[in-house]
Design a protein that fits this description.
- The complex is a heterodimer of chains A (288) and B (119).
- By secondary structure, chain A is an alpha+beta fold.
- Chain A is 65% helix and 12% strand.
- In chain A, strand 4 and strand 5 form a beta hairpin.
- By secondary structure, chain B is mainly alpha-helical.
- Chain B is 41% helix and 0% strand.
- Classes of the chains: A alpha+beta (288), B mainly alpha (119).
């Protein structure tokens, strides 16, 4: 269950990241398209103020995408103007982190640690490059959304897993309860007590457990009957032995002889046995 | 100073407006710039945050506001006369006084051309 949950979450997050990257790319393209059109003339003239003015105004416009930093550079990668002239002044080289991370023109590079996405657009005039626009886009809100989705997934999946585990434990417990009852009654049989499962329990069991309960009860009845027969047989054998002993004494067998009071006691016992109807006792009585 | 901007400054550029000079200096794009004192005073009122990131290094002597000029051949034309009369009489009318207030001006007056010529 956990494996399925982790797999599903991983797939969902991967799709979300792909969708967000596509969204950032699309928004960046729109932003850079607008800038390119507005900047062509200024870039040809390398007009510092006009370039800065366009960048400054583009940052003030409400937009879905927030450019954190934008640099406009000539073909030699020297800055014409940037949106942050204090950090990246005009006529300085484009910072290495921009150049290194943007080998592929137009393709967005996401730097999660910096909470930024970098993109570079080459600006053309009559099919000739006149410079590049480097942009760092603030993607903290998108990353926060991703983090929120991750936590929502983790918490939801954990809650679902726990809920399903508890439900499974409860259901399996309920399913196994008749088996536990059967096991309990079977274990009692080790002590020689094979007692049948009470009728109310059998009646309350589900249909698939009624059959094993009924079979167990039949077994218990058979065992009880067998025990009764064995007890009866043992009693008969005991009385037969007594009969043989009494017979021996009555006929003066020295090996079995005892004093006269034993013989009288046996007669008394035999008479009691006769009254209970034991055949062996009657036989012994005949011998006496 | 006996020098030219291209030699004294590493980079110099035009901003095409006095307010833009303040923006350029305020943003850090330029280290310094020359701006009309009247515009600077107005900006101090209307955009104090923008002006707060700048400071005045030297002030020039007080000079007249840039003139409203026209071609000398048209100076006597009726249209220019009406325009001159309208500007000079602005303080006499409440609506036009409001316009002067928006421009942070007291009024217009006819002065000698030498006042606006560099000495």
């Amino acid at each position: 269950m956990m494996a399925v949950s982790v797999f599903t979450s991983e797939r969902f997050l991967s799709r979300l990241i792909e969708t967000q990257t596509r969204q950032i790319q699309a928004l960046a393209d729109v932003y850079l398209d607008g800038l390119s059109l507005a900047l062509v003339d200024s870039m040809i003239r390398e007009d510092v103020w006009q370039v800065f003015d366009v960048l400054d105004r583009s940052q003030q416009r409400p937009s879905e995408i927030k450019p954190a930093e934008t640099i406009v550079a000539g073909t030699d990668d020297f800055v014409i103007a940037s949106s942050n002239p204090v950090r990246i002044p005009s006529q300085a080289r484009v910072p290495a982190r921009y150049v290194e991370s943007l080998q592929h023109v137009g393709k967005i590079v996401v730097a999660e640690a910096d909470k930024r996405a970098f993109v570079r657009r080459e600006v053309l005039y009559k099919n000739r490059p006149i410079g590049s626009i480097y942009a760092a886009l603030a993607i903290a809100p998108l990353l926060a959304e991703r983090r929120q989705v991750l936590w929502t997934l983790v918490l939801t999946n954990t809650a679902l897993t726990v809920l399903l585990a508890v439900a499974a434990w409860f259901i399996v417990g309920r399913m196994m309860r008749p088996m536990q009852t059967l096991t309990r009654y079977l274990e009692r049989s080790h002590d020689g007590q094979v007692s049948p499962i009470p009728e109310p329990i059998v009646a309350s069991a589900s249909s698939e457990y009624k059959r094993p309960f009924a079979a167990f009860n039949r077994l218990a009845a058979a065992v009880a009957e067998r025990e009764a027969r064995r007890a009866k047989l043992a009693e008969g054998e005991r009385l037969a032995s007594l009969g043989r002993l009494a017979c021996g004494m009555a006929h003066g067998d020295p090996s079995r002889g005892r004093s006269g009071y034993i013989s009288r006691w046996l007669r008394w016992k035999l008479s009691a046995a006769q009254s209970s109807g034991h055949a062996s006792a009657m036989l012994v009585a005949d011998w006496i | 100073m006996g020098s030219v901007p291209s030699k004294f400054f590493r980079l110099f550029f035009y901003t095409y407006g006095h307010r833009n000079v303040v923006r350029a200096v305020s943003s850090g794009l330029a280290a310094s710039g020359s701006v009309d004192g009247c515009v600077y005073d107005v900006l101090r009122e209307t955009e104090p945050d923008l002006v707060a990131r700048t400071r005045i290094i030297p002030k020039s002597e007080l000079l007249g506001f840039p003139p409203v000029a026209c071609a000398s051949v048209d100076a006597a034309s009726p249209e220019i006369s009406r325009l001159r009369e309208g500007l000079v009489n602005m303080p006499a009318d409440a609506d036009r006084r409001r316009v002067l207030g928006m421009l942070r001006l007291d009024g217009f007056s006819v002065e000698k051309p030498a006042l606006s010529r560099p000495k």
